[in-house]
Amino acid sequence: MGVLVGKCAPDFKAAAVHGDDIIEDFRLSDLKGKHIILFFYPLDFTFVCPTELHAFNERLDDFHERGVELVAASVDSHYSHIAWLATPKAKGGIEGIRYRVVSDMKKEIARDYDVLVEEQGIAYRGLFLIDPNFIVRHQVVNDLPLGRSVDEALRMVDAVQYFDKNGEVCPANWQRGEKAMAPSKQGLESFFG
């Protein structure tokens, strides 16, 4: 797996579904200037995937409060996304999802983010936190059967935003509102050049 942390996020142009709208040429860079969480999931109409998409949707207001845009992506077509969005949650669908769901039919986006499982043609559960300057600040990749923690994604947003605002580092298990650590200027220079 490639590490993208500290690097510019790979941009892309692809079809996306946002509610009832189809965006034929959505670009991730359209969101530059905001924090972005881009997360990949293996396939529409599966078992773990809808639990994740709903879990992120349930916390969407928490993300928006922090100025974060959510973008999901899979190798399915935007037509499949539309059908899945029209399917009720009780029947395994993602009806009611309020953020963009990108179609990566050519698998180029998953490949650029180095989460493509080539032999299966699907993506691992990769999550990338991208800052307003379009730099990847955090990434985590789960194996196919392992769902992610939305709470941890929010915690990482809080930590990145806290550091960027205050210059203080966030220790293990740090939570929003807790005391952080103020490193010496020399310590910061050794970390960040």
Overview of the structural elements:
By secondary structure, the protein is of the alpha+beta class. The protein has a domain at 13-147: Glutaredoxin (3-Layer(aba) Sandwich), CATH 3.40.30.10. It is 28% helix and 24% strand. It has six helices and nine strands. A seven-stranded mixed sheet has the order 2-1-5-4-3-8-9. Strand 8 and strand 9 form a beta hairpin. The relative contact order is 0.18.
Q: Roughly what percent helix? A: 25-40%
Give the assembly state of these chains: single chain
Separate helix tally: 6
What's the arrangement of strands in the largest beta sheet? 2-1-5-4-3-8-9
- Report the top-level CATH class of the domain at 13-147: Alpha Beta
- Which sequence of SSEs, written as H and E, runs from N to C? EEEHHEHEHEEEEHH
Give the secondary structure arrangement, pairings included.
Blueprint: E1 13-18, E2 21-27, E3 35-40, H1 48-58, H2 60-65, E4 68-74, H3 78-85, E5 100-103, H4 108-112, E6 116-117, E7 122-123, E8 125-130, E9 136-142, H5 150-166, H6 185-192
Parallel strand pairs: 3-4, 4-5
Antiparallel strand pairs: 1-2, 1-5, 3-8, 6-7, 8-9
Give descriptors for this structure.
single chain; 193 residues; alpha+beta; Glutaredoxin; 7-stranded mixed beta sheet; two-stranded antiparallel sheet; 9 strands; 24% strand
